[in-house]
C-alpha cells in the first residue's frame, strides 16, 4: 500500500533513532536483528531510510524501537 505524505520528511523520529542507536554503539543491522525478536520486521535498509527521514514509521515499529533502544516513546520527539 502506498503511503502519501506531503513534504520532504516522512517521519519525525529518525534523527533520534540514529542518536539513540549510536549512543549504544549498535549497528543498523544489529538493531534490525533485535527488532525481529519482538516480531517487528524492519530490514537494515529501512532503518537507514527511517534515520534519513525518507520512510514512515508505524506505531508498532516505534514501539519496537522504544523497547530495543530502552527509551520512552516520548523521547523520540524531544529534540524537534
Q: Assign the CATH class.
A: Mainly Alpha
Report the CATH superfamily: lambda repressor-like DNA-binding domains
CATH topology: 434 Repressor (Amino-terminal Domain)
Record field, number of beta strands: 0
Our Rg estimate from Cα atoms comes to 12 Å
Q: Supply the number of helical segments.
A: 4
Provide a descriptive summary of the structure in words.
This protein has helices spanning 14-23, 28-36, 44-51, 59-69. It has 80 residues and is mainly α. The chain has one domain (14-71): lambda repressor-like DNA-binding domains (434 Repressor (Amino-terminal Domain), Orthogonal Bundle), CATH 1.10.260. The protein is globular.
Features:
80 residues, mainly alpha, 434 Repressor (Amino-terminal Domain), globular
Quick recap:
This protein has four helices and no strands. The protein has helices at residues 14-23, 28-36, 44-51, 59-69.
Write the layout of secondary structure elements.
Blueprint: H1 14-23, H2 28-36, H3 44-51, H4 59-69
Helix pairs in contact: 2-3
Amino acid at each position: 500500500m502506498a503511503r502519501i505524505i506531503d513534504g520532504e520528511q516522512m517521519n519525525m523520529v529518525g534523527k533520534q533513532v540514529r542518536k539513540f542507536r549510536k549512543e549504544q554503539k549498535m549497528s543498523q543491522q544489529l538493531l534490525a536483528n533485535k527488532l525481529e525478536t519482538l516480531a517487528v520486521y524492519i530490514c537494515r535498509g529501512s532503518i537507514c531510510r527511517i534515520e534519513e527521514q525518507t520512510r514512515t514509521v508505524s506505531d508498532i515499529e516505534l514501539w519496537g524501537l522504544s523497547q530495543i533502544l530502552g527509551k520512552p516513546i516520548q523521547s523520540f520527539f524531544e529534540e524537534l
